[in-house]
Amino acid sequence: MSIVIRALSYAYAEQPNVPVLNIPEWSADAGEQVFLQGPSGSGKTTLINLLNGIFPASTGEIEICGHRLDQMSARQRDKFRANHIGCVFQQFNLVPYLSALDNVRLASHFASGTSGTSGRGASRSAEDLLSHLNIPKSLWHKASSQLSVGQQQRVAIARALVNRPELLIMDEPTSALDKKNRDQFMTLLKELLTEQPATLVFVSHEDELASHFSRHESIVEINQAAEVA
């Protein structure tokens, strides 16, 4: 299993007795591609932050690729995320003053061990991904803030994949795209995962994207806190 959740709950500090997430059990196999759909307020972002190790679980277990996030310190979760998890955020979260190339290389800088690369190896991996994602070499050294939305998105994907993560999490990655570009993005994503397999958790409110996935679930159905809210 790539993801195993057991008796997981999460509540914000200001309302500790009001869980926003309550998942008795949920899992995903290694290499599985899962589409999680849900409206605003259903717990999507909270679940992403828990799977990323950004939030600690209030209670319960989160196991990612055989490692228990709920038993790690914040520092250990940060290190684990850098080495094993790639994430594409809705707003991309690129460092605006860094170049496209440096944004991708930055992910390698934070990684260590077998999955991370450094020095010339990191540069080569970053360059290969940018080329594969059709980012012209003339843009590699431009500040990411000067790139188009579509180009920033592809840089964010390269950053998420540069350390060859076992788990790839995507948070509303197509929300800023029109239908044509959204379809092109989904085709590209499938190609990338064929070449570089990873478990994919794709979170979106766009029902029409479900047809691209063999497994489609509603966050409301797995989050009992959302069901009673």
What does this structure look like?
This protein is of the alpha/beta class and 229 residues long. It has a single domain (3-228), classed as 3-Layer(aba) Sandwich (Rossmann fold). It has helices at residues 44-51, 74-84, 100-110, 119-132, 149-161, 179-195, 219-222, 224-228; strands at 3-10, 21-28, 33-37, 59-64, 67-68, 85-88, 167-171, 199-204, 215-218. Strand 4 and strand 5 form a beta hairpin. Helix 3 (100-110) crosses helix 4 and helix 3 (100-110) runs parallel beside helix 5. It is globular, with a radius of gyration of 17 Å.
Features of the shown structure:
single chain; 229 residues; alpha/beta; Rossmann fold; five-stranded parallel beta sheet; 8 helices; 9 strands; transport; ATP binding; nucleotide-binding; ATP-binding; ABC transporter ATP-binding protein
List the helices and strands and how they pair.
Blueprint: E1 3-10, E2 21-28, E3 33-37, H1 44-51, E4 59-64, E5 67-68, H2 74-84, E6 85-88, H3 100-110, H4 119-132, H5 149-161, E7 167-171, H6 179-195, E8 199-204, E9 215-218, H7 219-222, H8 224-228
Parallel strand pairs: 3-8, 3-9, 6-7, 7-8
Antiparallel strand pairs: 1-2, 1-4, 4-5
